[in-house]
UniProtKB/TrEMBL annotation:
The keyword Zinc applies. Belongs to the ZC3H12 family. The lineage of its organism: Eukaryota, Metazoa, Chordata, Craniata, Vertebrata. Its cofactor is Mg(2+). It comes from Penelope pileata. One of its GO terms (molecular function) is RNA endonuclease activity. Residues 251-276 form the C3H1-type domain. This is ZC12D ribonuclease. Keywords: Endonuclease, Hydrolase, Magnesium, Metal-binding, Nuclease, Zinc, Zinc-finger. It comes from the Eukaryota.
Length: 309
């Protein structure tokens, strides 16, 4: 009896010492309810309750994984970053500035207008490449307007100067276009320029495809930076899809039939007919029968009689 009661309360999670102490006080023939009340009165708790009283620290588990190891930080960056679906932007600073200055003045204000336009859209990775010699004081043959804007963008880690130096009084300038295309290609971004980079297209076939598909041209209209709504033509993607990593497909729209009610294609017509409810496209013969209120069965019998020998 003592062993059976000991096993019973051990299964409930109570310690053997507490159970033996209660059985000595109440006797071996004490009822189980009395033993349980005495254990509760003594303040003894089952081990399961003790473990629940001390909650273990929460651990994040990756979806679909059975391990309790914490999730790496990079897994949650894409969900938390609202701009993760937007492509990086690489701006040809010289091309944009000269376009805004009407090809006469290097207008730094045009670069600011382009950067602000992409900032308002939510792009976080924006890089502008300008030759280093543009930091020098302006000259008559190369005037610069609003040069302080370059310093502001450089402090914001947006503007990057391509290297240049002077050797024996002559300026040696590195090819900034190669910087622009290379960074945009590695970042899988968009090049903002009106230059076609034909020389770089001939150098690398991969760059050729990338320049053809990721070059965003633009215009300045009354100090307003305006890229086209169809960067790759009328049949290409929209501007939103062009600047997004995950393009949104438009809903299919039905084009109305140019012939209208005079269409003779019947159910083979690929266009939309508003006079046909739920696109119930009928053949010409069925439409004529419906207009004359002739049942279809009679029409079929007449056709069988005509075809019979």
């Amino acid at each position: 009896v003592h062993q059976s009661k000991l096993d019973f309360f051990c299964k409930l999670g109570y310690g053997k010492q507490d159970i033996c102490r209660v059985l000595e006080n109440l006797g071996q023939e004490a009822l189980e309810d009395d033993v349980l009340k005495e254990l509760i009165r003594m303040g003894s708790k089952p081990q399961a309750l003790d473990s629940q009283a001390q909650p273990s620290p929460l651990k994040l588990v990756a979806r679909g994984s059975c391990s309790t190891s914490p999730v790496p930080q990079w897994l949650g960056e894409e969900e938390g970053d609202s701009s993760s679906h937007l492509r990086p932007i690489v701006i040809d600073g010289s091309n944009v500035a000269m376009s805004h200055g009407n090809k006469e003045v290097f207008s730094c204000w045009g670069i600011r207008l382009a950067v602000d336009w992409f900032r308002e859209r939510g792009h976080t990775y924006i890089k502008v490449f300008v030759p280093l010699w543009r930091k020098e004081p302006p000259r008559q043959d190369s005037p610069i307007a609003d040069q302080h804007i370059l310093e502001e963008l450089e402090k914001q880690s947006i503007l990057v100067y391509t290297p240049s130096r002077k050797v024996k009084g002559k300026r040696v300038v590195c090819y900034d276009d190669r910087y622009i295309v290379k960074v945009a290609y590695e970042k899988d971004g968009v090049i903002v320029s009106n230059d076609h980079y034909r020389d770089l297209q001939n150098e690398n076939p991969e760059w050729k495809w990338f320049i053809e598909q990721r070059l965003l041209m633009y215009s300045f209209v009354s100090n307003r930076f305006m890229p086209p709504d169809d960067p790759l033509g009328r049949h290409g993607p929209t501007l939103n899809n062009f600047l997004s990593k995950k393009p949104v497909l438009p809903e299919p729209t039905w084009q109305p039939c140019p012939y209208g009610k005079k269409c003779t294609y019947g159910n083979k017509c690929k266009f939309y007919h508003p006079e046909r409810p739920h696109q119930a496209q009928l053949s010409v013969a069925d439409e004529l029968r419906a207009k004359t209120k002739v049942p279809v069965s009679l029409g079929k019998e007449e056709e069988m009689c005509n075809h019979s020998p």
